[in-house]
Amino acid sequence: MNFELATMNLDRAAADRSDILVVLVPEAFAPNDDALSQLISDGIKAGELDTKAGKLLQAWRIPEVKAARVLLVGAGDGSVRQVRSAVASAMAVVKAASVKRMTLCCPWECTGDVVRAAILTVADATYVYTTTKSRPEGRMLHQVLFGLPDATAVSSAFGLAVAAVGGIEFAREWANRPANHATPALLAEAARALAKGPKFQCEVLGPKQVLKLGMGAFLAVAQGSLEPLRFIVLKYNGTAKASPPVVLVGKGITFDTGGISIKPAPEMDEMKFDMSGAASVLGVFRALADIKPGINVIGLIPACENMPDGRAVKPGDVVTSLSGQTIEILNTDAEGRLVLCDALTYAERFKPRAVVDIATLTGACMIALGAVRSGLFATSDGLAQALLAAGESSQDLCWRMPLDDDYAEGLKTNFADVANVAGKAGGAVTAAKFLQRFAMAFDWAHLDIAGTAWKGGATKGATGRPVGLLLDYLVSVATSTSLVAARSRKVAGRGSLAASRRTAGRGR
Ligand code: BES
Ligand code: MN
Ligand code: ZN
After folding, report:
1. Best mutation site among 255, 263, 267, 333 for ligand 1, i.e. most ligand atoms within 8 A of its Cβ?
2. How far apart are the first and last CA of the chain?
3. Which of 341, 362, 434 to mutate to test the pocket of ligand 1 (most atoms within 8 A of CB)?
4. Is 379 left (phi over 0), alpha (psi -120 to 50) or beta?
5. Is the pTM of this model over 0.85?
6. Is 160 a domain residue?
7. Which of 253, 324, 403, 406 is the most buried if burial means most Cβ atoms within 10 Å?
8. Assigned domain for 506 exists
């Protein structure tokens, strides 16, 4: 879909010849002298147009407006949340009208966050999965013109939003693909294709190399499947080599049967989404190519299937992880932490600024937080704050969970350094405590997206979360490090100036 941004008041919007003109009308609507403004304020006065978020008033071929259809939408207080719900309800009408070109007009000076919310909502409503359909429906809406009184004020937010749409849709696409169309090898090919640009690199390791490295935990999960594992290393070099990277680690279980600790049949198909963390890392890299922030980013994806088989790992088996720690695999369905722990150890070699792993890790997190917020665990308060803030600004929310050492008690075992499961209680936290043992060498955060990565039921499908959150986080790191760099350049400059003055003084 093609998004454009334009400066327009309602008089210009009225002259626009798209298929449908959608106007967001806030409670505090301030009419100008133009005909459309007058029409809207008359509508409000007459009680025909309700400015509560999501309330609609439609018209067809009215003389004041060039577009065939006009849709007025209440935008409530004009906040990010209310604009999102307004655009979502407008999109139901837009989709039913099967139009190709839409102009979406926001007649007040809204913030960049509001622009982004509107654009993401339009994209979200019109995304259609097509890969495995023999006669794909495709997307009707092709062209979206977003108009507001001052386009220049929000142009960078607009650029970020359009890039985020690309990343989110890429993540949705890969997460939605069934396991036979999204094997570890296919994920690796997708990663390679993403790394075409000059600032990108991609390296893919197969079973032999992973064995040689000593990733015994990852190998144990993969050994029950005929699909060979892949360990994907993506690199984005957005700034000086010496600048420590942010490492993103995405759980890439392309199908999770549970293994020998097999899952029940109902809804097992949804375990094709168990590589949503990996898909979010791919989506982030896709968007990085558009945004080009001044930051270094590494993406690590351990990708394999978790299958029951004659060769599969068995409950009670003990394996040696890349870190050297031995693990008793009491439940083969707790496989995510096994592939992640070796990837976390691998991350040490990059001497990262921070490591964030993203995983559909526990049903328990879904029980705790539902589908609204992802679970956030962090060993650094600064990192936690930055991710929470990124969640708020992108409206891709998360919620911080605890990491008290007492939660690790249940992971103790007589037969290895650590067991891969504790009891039922606090399952999302005990999983995080397991991972923390492998993340002691850097600032680390873990996002449990079990409840947020996909929706079940009639609208079954991937959400693309938390690509939006991660992008905002990376952009915030890029901005703050470039500020710090600028400041230290200034300080250094002052220092040398003072030094040269001193020398000059002595010379005299
Ligand atoms: N991929 C699942 C977690 C999951 C389950 C996410 C349902 C979303 C919906 C993970 O590999 C898993 O099976 N976790 C187990 C852990 C348990 C065995 C300690 C779980 O949550 O039941
Ligand atoms: Mn599992
Ligand atoms: Zn899993």
Report:
1. 333
2. 69
3. 362
4. alpha
5. yes
6. no
7. 253
8. no
Strand, helix or coil at 306? strand
Neighbouring residues of the ion ligand 3, judged by CB less than 5 Å: 253, 256, 274, 336
508 lies in a domain?
no
pLDDT of residue 494: 65
Q: Cβ(449) to ligand 1 under 6 A?
A: no
Is residue 277 within 8 Å of 357, Cβ to Cβ? Answer: yes
Does the pLDDT value for residue 402 go beyond 70?
A: yes
Q: Same domain for 133 and 203? A: no
pLDDT at residue 191, rounded to an integer: 98
Residue type at 465? R
Same domain, 448 and 311: yes
Cα–Cα–Cα angle for 186, 189, 195, rounded to 5 degrees = 150
pLDDT band at 161 (very low <50, low <70, confident <90, very high): very high
Is the Cβ atom of 331 under 6 angstroms away from ligand 1? yes
| Active site (annotated) includes residue 286 | no
**With 0-12 CB in 10 A as exposed, 13-18 as middle and 19+ as buried, what is 222?**
buried
- Ligand 1 atom 5 nearest Cα: 363
On the question of a cis peptide bond just before residue 466, with omega within 30 degrees of 0, the verdict is yes
Is residue 188 situated within a structural domain? yes
269 Cβ neighbours under 8 A, 6+ residues apart: none
| Token pair in block for residue 413 | 């075992």
Task: Kindly state if the Cβ of 316 falls inside 6 Å of ligand 1.
Answer: no
Using CA of residue 212, residue 215, residue 221, residue 222, what is the dihedral sign? negative
Please determine, for residue 13, whether its predicted confidence score (pLDDT) is greater than 60.
yes
Catalytic residue flag (residue 337): yes
Q: Is the CB of 413 under 6 A from ligand 1?
A: no
**432 Cβ contact partners less than 8 Å away, ≥ 6 residues apart:** 361, 375, 377, 401, 403, 446, 448
